[in-house]
Write a structure and sequence with these properties.
Elements: H1 3-13, E1 20-21, H2 22-29, H3 35-43, E2 56-57, H4 74-81, H5 94-97
Length: about 100
Amino acid sequence: MNTFEKIYEVVKRIPKGRVATYGQVAAFAGNPRWSQIVGYALHVNPDTSSIPCHRVVNRFGQTAKAFAFGGEDAQRKLLEAEGVGFTSDGRVDMEKHLWKGE
């Protein structure tokens, strides 16, 4: 399995209503230094219907400004549709929605 495939397998495990950070995905995929590589892999996601890249946010709970699959605010809308809550400053409520690999 190559690096991108390992990343995609981790992302597929993130349940609806939860998010993971790029760093978490990198660590679960085998190397905590792969955070940027996670970003590249998600940007070229070959199967958005089974690899829910919208569930990956930065360590502060911020969504991508120019989300690859629908433009600005598309990621937030997808997360909200799954029940993910946001704080008043527009970040994912990480205390409630952070996936810990369980």
